[in-house]
Write a structure and sequence with these properties.
Layout: H1 3-12, E1 17-23, E2 29-35, H2 43-46, E3 48-51, E4 65-70, E5 76-77, E6 85-93, H3 105-118, E7 124-136, E8 138-144, E9 147-153, H4 189-202, E10 206-211, E11 218-223, E12 226-227, H5 228-248, E13 252-254, E14 268-276, E15 279-280, H6 292-303, H7 305-312, H8 318-321, E16 334-336, E17 343-345, E18 357-359, H9 368-384, H10 402-406, H11 415-424, H12 437-456, H13 461-467
Parallel strand pairs: 1-6, 16-17
Antiparallel strand pairs: 1-2, 3-4, 4-6, 5-6, 7-11, 7-12, 7-13, 7-14, 8-9, 10-11, 14-15, 14-18, 17-18
Helix pairs in contact: 3-9, 4-5, 5-9, 6-9, 7-9, 7-11, 11-12
């Protein structure tokens, strides 16, 4: 879509406002709106000015003037606004130098794709994330100097099986038994269907939707794969649609990795493949139908997995999910079909076009522009340096004996460990100036001070249960 196409789209839909969206460093969409009278072709070249001093993870107030430059390819009519509104995702540009802002995650994603092309390895890298989420009926939380708590609830949750709901109609999925039951046990089917319909209206191809494993409304909706930047844009739209449709129903949706104790958390398995001139490069005659390039890509992912975790699993809550026993891939191995491995090679089809790898440890709390770019950079490092991932592990990792298990590397156990790993291992990210030292340092500093230290300094409610009587 060109700038002329966008203006025509606005005219055809009687648009009254233009919503300009961009993403902060941690991964939350930001926006501001302008009346339709401001929309013209010059906007797509010159951009619009705004104050970036309060955006999370960006530089201080002395360099706060920024430009948003809309990308016409991202245009859609927002289905949740009272007045017809055109939505555009934007790049961030320095108004003085006219250069792209190095801490703009969208710019990082653009550089990652360009770096792959510069190596003459491939011309397109496809990403297909499977983002899981929860739909709740009630969420409350607070933290004061003298108290701290959270409360999440769902009419579907098994812990409400004995509650007087006037009446309680039962059919609540038991813990870890929420995968694929039909209604009335699956009480979220119509909500998910409406989410799919809204995504379809915007132009996002949905491949499947279903209830996920956990009780209390866990869900998954899968989008068809797209090139890296386009897929990151789509994932931001996806989250926006999911949250706003849930709100229509008087419910609330979250992509927090582990909001429910004793049940599965929400992961985001990410399918990846590199193509060149319309040909898939991960298909071959090696293990599980992979090419040598595909194996090397896996080798790079596994080698850098601990550092990647700081970007693909970037919250303290992420590591409540990455524990044994809940289908979370804490052990770094690869396999065909085996879902207990950190990297899987899906075996649904023998077609070379379907050959891809699936990285299973990420979760949907990540910034997709940064996470996808980091995964690509790790995979490219594996290809460039011919990093073989070793022998596959075609057995249940959790059934291994102590000696076998000791030979398998594991994911970091906390965000703090992951940040330490990223600090020690990030040269592969800096190739081609994709991630600058400033971006990596800013990420580590933000996460340590705003999240790791912030949580460490506060008493946890369960500590009172464990320690009050000491």
């Amino acid at each position: 879509m060109t700038s002329k196409d966008v203006i025509r789209l606005a005219e055809e839909n009687n648009v009254q406002f233009v919503d300009l969206k961009f993403i902060d460093l941690p991964g939350i969409w930001q926006h501001f709106g302008v009346p339709i009278d401001e929309l013209n072709e010059d906007m797509f070249e010159d951009g619009l000015g705004f104050d970036g001093s309060s955006i999370r993870g960006w530089k201080s107030i002395h360099t706060s003037d920024m430009l948003v430059v809309p990308d016409p390819a991202t245009a859609f009519i927002d289905p949740f606004r009272e007045y017809p509104t055109l939505s555009l995702s934007c790049n961030i540009v320095d108004p003085v130098t006219k250069e792209s802002y190095e801490r703009d995650p969208r710019h990082i994603a653009q550089k990652a794709t360009n770096y792959m092309k510069s190596l003459n390895i491939g011309d397109t890298v496809y990403f297909g994330p499977e983002a899981e989420f929860f739909i709740f009926d009630d969420v409350r939380y607070d933290q004061t100097p003298g108290s701290g708590y959270y409360f999440v609830d769902s009419r579907e949750a098994i812990w409400n099986s004995g509650k007087d709901e006037g009446p309680n109609l039962a059919y609540k999925p038991r813990h870890k038994e929420g995968y694929f039951p039909v209604p009335p046990t699956d009480s979220m089917v119509d909500i998910r269907a409406e989410m799919c319909m809204e995504l379809k209206k915007i132009g996002i191809w949905v491949e499947a939707e279903h209830h996920e494993v956990a009780t209390a409304g866990q869900a998954e909706i899968d989008m068809r794969f797209s090139p890296l930047l386009e897929m990151a844009d789509k994932l931001m739209i996806f989250k926006y649609v999911i949250k706003n449709v849930a709100r229509r129903y008087g419910k609330t949706a979250t992509f927090m990795p582990k909001p429910v104790f004793t049940d599965n958390g929400s992961g985001m398995h990410i399918h990846q493949s590199i193509w060149k001139e319309g040909n898939p490069l991960f298909a071959g005659n090696e293990y599980a139908g992979l090419s040598e390039m595909g194996l090397y890509y896996i080798g790079g992912i596994i080698k850098h997995a601990s550092a990647l975790a700081a970007l693909t699993n970037p919250t303290t809550n992420s590591y409540k999910r990455l524990v044994p026993g809940f289908e979370a891939p804490v052990n770094l191995a690869y396999s065909g079909r085996n879902r207990s491995a950190a990297v899987r090679i899906p075996m649904y089809s023998a077609s070379p076009k379907a050959k891809r790898i699936e990285v299973r440890f990420p979760d949907p709390s990540c910034n997709p522009y940064i996470a996808f770019s980091a995964l690509l950079m790790a995979g490219l490092d594996g290809i460039e340096n011919k990093i073989h991932p070793g022998e596959p592990l075609d057995k249940d990792i959790y059934d291994l004996g102590p000696e076998e298990l000791a030979s398998v590397a594991t994911m970091p156990a906390s965000l703090e460990e992951a940040l330490d790993a990223l600090e020690a291992d990030h040269e592969f990210l800096k190739k081609g100036n994709v991630f600058t030292e400033d971006v990596v340092s800013a990420w580590i500093d933000y996460k340590r001070t705003r999240e790791v230290d912030a949580l460490r300094q506060r008493p946890h409610p369960y500590e009172f249960f464990m320690y009050y009587d000491i």
